[in-house]
Amino acid sequence: MTSVVARAFTLLIAAGLMTVGSGSGSLTAESEGVWSETRFHTGCDPGPFHPPLPPEHLETHYPPLGTVPAAASLDVDLAAASRPMLGAGFNFENALWSCPEFRGVFRPQVLDPFQPSIARVDTGLLPAAPPDLPAASLGPAVYDSVLDSAPYAESWAFFRRLNRAGVKIILGVWGGPDQFTDDGTRRGVLLPEHYDDYVEYVATVVDYLVRQQHIQVWASTIANEPDGGDGNQIPPSGLAYIAHQLAPRLGDSGVKLYGPDTANGNAALQYLPSLLGDPVVANALAFVAFHQYYPSSEVGAVADYVHARQPDLPVVVTEYTSFNFGDLDDGQEANAQNGFALDIAATLLSHYREGADAALYWDAVDYLQPGHDAITKWGLLQGPAQDFAPRTRYYGLLQILPYLQPGAHVLNAASSGDDQVQSLAVRTAEGVPAIFLVNQDFGPVEMTVGLHGEQADAYSSMSVTRTNRQHTADHLGRVTFSDGVAQLTLPPRSITTLYPVGAGPQPSDEST
User: How many other CB atoms are found less than 10 A from the CB of residue 243?
Assistant: First the structure.
């Protein structure tokens, strides 16, 4: 059956079914068979959502006065560097664009200061399928109609805004329709008899964005967290089958694949043999991807596995954040904001040290996640109800992410001393060093930084930028290098960035 016939047939079914539910948790169909999303509303007051839990109380004390500082050192080889990175970026909720106030915030608060190179954006806040329709009645015409409905109407303009800014778009698929799983929920096991239906669903959504909305998409995930996380559960063999079918379908639209997009690196290693072992899939991959929410050698294990088989295939951490400060998915706020910033900064530095070519923070701005019935609290910026106010973590990552541009290299560096100090040194795309130091200790640390290599003498001083309880990405003067060595004190619970004077990241020249 051709796609045109299939769409017409599905429209006939939809027209015959008329109304399938009310606005309290399903979708409605007009008499002509046009399906409208009514499970949630968007804009500056999205919902519905349940009230969040109170913040968790976590003690983040300072040590008594007179505590003897610990000692640590970092020796940086300015010559020895990794392969050029792909950059850094964020996860976004595209429906934020339905709030007009966010449009004025996006460039000055996100695009210009952070200069993200990659944006991971959901194809929809929920699967674009009426929950009360039987699986046999679903198809491209229904999916297209839901994506055309009012709650999504302004979402697609956000994708085009990213295109104009030159940010690479990768798609996250929230999950296939509930009707395709064993228990009738989005997090259930995708039934093998619906693998082809799932392929049709993903291919239709991608086709809708590319051909109907004229959006440039670099790659789409095969599935989000198929290992039992937030999406359909799919075993390795099933994901490989789906990827094999998706590759040519998405390739026709000029879109690559990425995956396995598992919840951690160890799970990714269970899926990669079947994905990389299939030439059709391997050739269609833009990069290998997985999530990693804490510092771990799992990132290095995945990178080593991939590069031993396909040396040029990038490895990207498509989600990182911290789970140590409450259930932010459920709308709970982290009360220890500086501690949260330290956690995610340390995780970020670890991912690049371990060989990630890019890492994407989850997520940029608070917004509605209907799958959790919550306004989630992961954002660097708070949501519309808080006028998109920045949290401490905004300033912590502002000291790091703008330096991680495409073409930057991680430098070889050896650290010693206090193991509560995490570090990363890079050579920026402009060819100068930038050094990041995260002191998670509750006491001060006397830090020695040594530069080695032919260009070490070129840097007699570096600017110091810091975020902690007293500072938010504040410039605090300079540190002087003598014979390539500098001494500085890292305050307790702080993020410090060192970079050559006048060599900081420059804002983009993108026109408004």
Answer: 26
Judge if the upstream peptide bond of residue 363 is cis by omega within 30 degrees of 0. Answer: yes
The DSSP secondary structure of 28-94, one letter per residue, reads EE-TTS-EEE-S-B-SSS-B--PPPPPPBP---PPPPTTPPPEEEEEEEEEEEE-SPP---EEEE-G
Q: Which domain holds residue 203?
A: 86-403
421-461 residue pLDDT tens: 999 999 999 999 999 999 999 999 999 999 999 889 999 99
| Residue length of the chain | 512
Residue 197 and residue 148 share a domain: yes
Is the bond preceding 48 in cis, omega lying within 30 degrees of 0?
Answer: yes
Beta bridge partners of 482: 485
pLDDT tens by residue, 365-379: 999 999 999 999 999
The pLDDT assigned to 468 comes to: 96
pLDDT of residue 506: 55
Q: Evaluate the CA torsion angle 233, 237, 240, 245 in order and state its sign.
A: negative
Does residue 476 share a domain with residue 373?
Answer: no
Residue 197 main-chain phi, psi, to 5 deg: -65, -40
Whether residue 31 has pLDDT greater than 50: no
Alpha-carbon distance of 373 to 364, in angstroms, equals 19
Task: Look at 67 and 24; give whichever has higher pLDDT.
Answer: 67
- DSSP run (H or E) holding 485: strand 485-490
Among 385, 403, 421, give the residue marking a domain's end.
Answer: 403
Do 479 and 359 lie in one domain? The reply is no
Cβ-proximal residues to 339 (8 Å cutoff; 6+ apart), any chain? 58, 60, 324, 325, 493
Asked if 371 contacts 330 with a C-beta cutoff of 8 angstroms, the reply is: no
Cα distance between residue 371 and residue 382, in whole Å: 19
Predicted pLDDT of residue 59: 67
Q: Same domain, yes or no, for 366 and 415?
A: no
How many secondary structure helices (H) and strands (E) does the chain include?
Answer: 12, 21
At residue 400, does pLDDT exceed 70? Answer: yes
> Residue 219: pLDDT above 80?
yes
Number of neighbours of residue 122 by Cβ within 10 angstroms: 21
What average pLDDT does range 277-293 have in this prediction? 98
Q: In what order do the strands lie in the sheet with 421-427?
A: 474-480, 461-467, 494-500, 433-439, 421-427, 409-417, 70-81, 445-452, 485-490
Which backbone phi and psi does 337 adopt, to 5 degrees? -65, -40
Rounded mean pLDDT of 392-404? 98
Q: Rounded to an integer, what distance in angstroms lies between the CA atom of residue 340 and that of residue 334?
A: 7
The domain boundary residue, chosen from 403, 437, 472: 403
Distance of CA 220 to the CA centre of its chain: 13
**Do 446 and 326 reside in the same domain of the chain?**
no
Cβ atoms of 157 and 95 within 8 Å: the answer is no
Rounded to an integer, what distance in angstroms lies between the CA atom of residue 287 and that of residue 274?
A: 15
Structure tokens at 389: 């106010």
